[in-house]
Structure formats: structure tokens, C-alpha cells
Amino acid sequence: MPDTAGLDATATGGVEGACHTFPSFNALLLRELEALFAGAVVLPAIAARYLIAAARAAACTTPPGLAVADGAVVPLAGPLACLAEPFAPPPGTLDACLMALAPVLAQVPASRGVDALAGAETLHPWACAVWDLLPSTARILASGGDERLDGQAGNGLNRYGVGSLPRPEVLAFASSTASDPSPRGFAAARAARLALVRALARDWPDKAAMAATVAATVMETKAFLAGFFGVDSPDHVILAASGTDCAMAATAVCALRGSPVTIVLPGAEETGSGVPQAARGRHFASRTAHGVAVEKDGVVEGFSPRPVCVPVAVREADGARRTARDVLADCTVHIEQAIRMGRRVLLYVLDVSKTGLVMPDIAGVEVLCQRFPGQVDVLVDGCQARFLPEQAGAFLRRGWAVMVTGSKFYAGPTFCGALLLPRRWRARLAGEGEGQHAGLPPGLADYAWRTEWPAAPATACLPEGFNAGLFLRWQGACAEMAAFAATPERERQHRLDLFLSGVAKALSACPMVRLLPATQAGEAGHWMWEDSILTFLVLAPSAREADHVRPAVLDMERSRRLHRWLQADLSPYVPDGPQAAALRALVALPCHVGQPVALPCAQALGGVAGALRIAASARHVTAGEADATTETAALVRDVGQVLGKLVFVLDHWESIAARDPAPCAAGVFPLLRLSGGGRTTGA
Prior knowledge:
Blueprint: H1 14-18, H2 25-37, H3 44-59, H4 91-101, H5 123-130, H6 137-141, E1 171-173, H7 183-203, H8 207-229, E2 237-240, H9 243-254, E3 261-266, H10 275-279, E4 308-312, H11 324-340, E5 344-351, E6 358-359, H12 362-371, E7 376-381, H13 389-397, E8 401-405, E9 417-420, H14 423-429, H15 468-486, H16 489-509, E10 513-515, E11 533-538, H17 556-566, H18 580-588, E12 591-600, E13 608-615, H19 618-621, H20 628-651, H21 653-659
Parallel strand pairs: 1-12, 3-4, 3-5, 5-7, 7-8
Antiparallel strand pairs: 2-9, 5-6, 8-9, 10-11, 11-13, 12-13
Helix pairs in contact: 2-3, 3-4, 3-7, 7-8, 7-15, 8-15, 11-12, 16-20
């Protein structure tokens, strides 16, 4: 495709591919222009729009919060300074930008002889219409969500330790939490952005055509997801800025029946941290996906102010997992009570939890639905997406809705969710069938655009608009999903088996960690039943000297610090010695594992341990250039390096804690360092 032709060694190309080495503004501008023109000659008005679009992308290259070395980027001055501003500049300023930039067009073969200045007359109204869509891919990927997407000051990484730029130097095993975009996913997002900018440059000033272009891009994403997961049609897919947003959408659709709803939520502590709030129709962050400031835990307008949400424990007091049948028995008690009170029930099924649990027993849930026909809605929390894609279709045929994301197992850019609707749920949006049509809560207008939902009477209250960040994140995820689907199932299974068995051996051999028992008994030949999230406890730093049988393990607070330090450059903490050089190289590598999950544990301070996770992702089982044994062996060696760095942290805890180093940012480790035969895993 023209958008990705001539990619450099990072496979990202254009503005974003260059940002790790931070070349001059002119170099970035030229790369972006060549990608927009894609060898085609255009009219002067289009050339002028391309020029401003390319310049704005070059001016907004780095994600918010990412600090770069002094002198690496020269701030724009004069009329060009306005290109990085959040709003389009006035006409005179924009004309001055165009005049300053016009000479660059002579370096783009397709634009030679095109006078961009002749297109100045319509430039300002066009820029006002599309200004938010003109920053770089990295900047847009970090937009269109709540504050969980925000890059932290200095390194540009969000609270989950990932950013919106590829970082193939990271030893990445955190798909149970979040992943940096891969070069493949990032290239897909960039190609989609360039195509959208071209279309909007062509369509303006026809507002209907522009709206149709945006609607078509959203529908294409829905169509891909519908085909991938076996959904009846794209019109049975709701896109959402996160899995948590999906939970709020599900409650809204469930409440369309008009009856009060009781939510029965197994494993509240092992699903998304904001899900219990979102499921009750409460704000789960201080900012919505539309950028609206809200009061966290406040009731979203239109939702019940007194919802009932019943958590059901999935672990015993000692942290051991409960049986799926016992969890189902507790759920049944709460469901019976709710139905006696004349309430509808929304029952969550975890498939799978943060630590790999499937709760409650699925066969038992089917029996419950038969026992209480039409009174129990089932929502499968499949946000980890650790099941065969066709399994989602099987759930939908039972009449159960399914939440999925592209950012967990499929390791797409963080925060892209979808709610897959069975026919009964879709019919409610149309006001058909069951009960009275109550209408969607008006407060959803701060979270969702109409194009993200099916076209139906109930969704008419949602505003028109476009979440470019969500769209690009899904484009990156869809690229990963397509690569996964293109790998034969037997090959995927073989690679997963090799990876999980190798990682389990590495964890079992490490003296400072305790691998928790597998969560599933397994079914031969079905990788979805494998334990693709390996959860482990870490012994406290003093455990080496402990003489008791059951040494202390890290609590949540210290596990969070360990998780953060594993991503930092710890080479300054290596003492001089004969092995210092090799050790410094090891502990300089950023290592990303799944964030700690709170588990009851008598050996942890406060009775709660922080369990870390190493998870398989689609990137680990997608066929690469080398054979499965070679590639998987490299991945397992990477896990060994992660554990080596973990042990180093425990051995030097006090000195590291004194300075509390921050995770490495994109650009700290130049991507090109790893090209030309270097390690390529994790990309």
C-alpha cells in the first residue's frame, strides 16, 4: 500500500517512524507529504490541505508528556508555531503558514508544478472542520478516552506503563494489562489516518460526504469485528473507548426493559477496576471519552440513582480460587432474591479474569437462564479475548452479550472496546419485543457517538461525532487480529504450548517467585482452555535471609513499585565488578509484565499480596519468519531476562527505592539499535 511503502527498520515510517531519532521538522514534513500524495497529482486546493495536514502532524509528533533530549527538537517559531495549537489559527496566520511551507512541495515529485498558494481561499474553513484529525498518529492514539490514556510527565507512558509509540526494545509480556503498539499495528493505524485525511481533503465542503466518510470508516471496523467474532451483522456491534465503557453500555441496554436491574458480578476484584462503577451507571473516571469533566462515582444522568450491584467472590480467604460451581451457587442465591423482588438480573460471566479464571460455571449459567426465562440477561466479560473467536458467536447464539477488547490478548493499542449484541439485545434498541422501550440514559451522550452504536430509535439521543483515537486504536488491533487469523490453528497451538511450558519452567526455577496453580484443567487441542496468563507471587527482598518455611511475599504497594522499576533503566545501580558490563546491559532493558492483582495472602503485609503476571499474546503465537521452536525459545529467554532483572531489584531494593526511577520512555532506547539482526521479539 502507498501509505506504508518505503518503511524504515522500525516498520512505522513517516512522521512517527522518525520521531525516535527526532530529525528536523522539515524532514518530518517531507516524509508526511510524500505519504499523503502517494505519487498522485492533485489540485492546488488539495495540495494546500495536504501541506497544512503534513505540517500539523510534524508539529504534533510526540505524544503528550513525552520529554525529549534538549536540542533534539527545535520548537517551531513564527507563523508555524500555531500548528501545534489545539485550535485552527485565524485565516491570516494560516495563510502565512502556507506561504512559509510552500517551497517544500518542490521536493515532492507528485506536487511539482502544483501551486499550493492557489488553494489558500478555502484552506481556513477546511482546517477548522478537521483540525482535530490532523496531529500525528501517536498523538491521536492517545486521545478519545478518559484519563487512563494520559501520558505521564516526562516519559509519555500512561498509568499502565505503555504509550502510543512502538517500543520493540521492551521485553513485553503484559497483554493481560496493556501493550505498546507494535510496528505492524502502528503502521495500520497510520495508514488509516492518512487515508482519512485524504478523504476529508477531497470531500470538503460537502458535509454530507464528510459525514459519510467518517461513518464508513466506523462501519468498516464493525464489519471486521462482526466477521472475526461471528456476530450476526455490523449492526450488532457497539464500539466503546474501553472495556469499562462497554460495561456501562450493557447496563443501559439491559435497562431498556424498564424494570429495575440487579447486577450480579463475580470477581469484581479481577475485572476492570472501574467496571463495578460503570455497571451501576456511575462515572468511573474524572473525564469521559468525549473529554467532559465529571465527578468520579457520580451517577450518570438517566441511570438509576440506587442500583444494586452484588459482588461474588471468586477466591477463598487464603487466595485459592473457588470452584466455578460454588461461585454459581452464590450467584443463584442473589438471582433468586432479585427476581422475587421483581427485578431483572444482569449476570456477568468472567471469561477470563485478570488471573485467568472462568467464573461461574458456564453450563450452570445456561441452566439458570432456562429456569428464569426472559428474566436473566447474561454478559460475558471477554475483554481479555482469550478464547477462540468463534466462541463469541456461540455465546451470542445463546442470547448472551459479549464484551471484547483489541488491547489485551490481541495486544493492540490500549483502550479499544466493543460490545457484541445478541438478537434480543439488538431488538431492544429498536423498541421491539420485550417490554416497554425506556430509552437510553441521556448521560451516555458524554461517552459515545451515534455512529459507534447501531442505527435504532433508542440511539437517536446520542450526538453525531467521531472518536478518531478509538478508530485508530481499533485499526491497530484489527491488524494484529488479522495476522493471528492468518496463522494456521495448529501452528498457533504449537507456539502457545511451547511458550507457556517454557515460561512455566522458568518461573518455577526462579527462587524468588512462586507460580500460582493453573486456573483451568484444560481440554486437549483447544488453546483457549490453556492457562495463557501465568500468575506469580514475588518473595520479599529479605526472603533470602529468612529461615522460616513460608517467607513473606510482596504486598500490593511493593509489587507496584517492582512493576514500575522493571520498566526503568537500572544500570546506574550496578556496582563495579568483573560482570558489571553484562549486568548493566541486562537491567537497562525495560521489562513489562502484567500489573499486580490484589490476592488474599497471609504472608503479605496487610494480608493482601500483589500478584504479577506474564501473559501470552497474539504476537507470541502469530507465525513469524523463523520456525516456532526458534522464535519461542527467544521469547522464553526474554522471560529469563525479566526474571533476572526482578532478582536484581530484590537484591538492591533499598538503593533503588531511594531514587525511585521512572519507566523508560519511547526514544530512550533508539529503535534502530535493534534492527539488523538484533532481538525482534515483542514487536
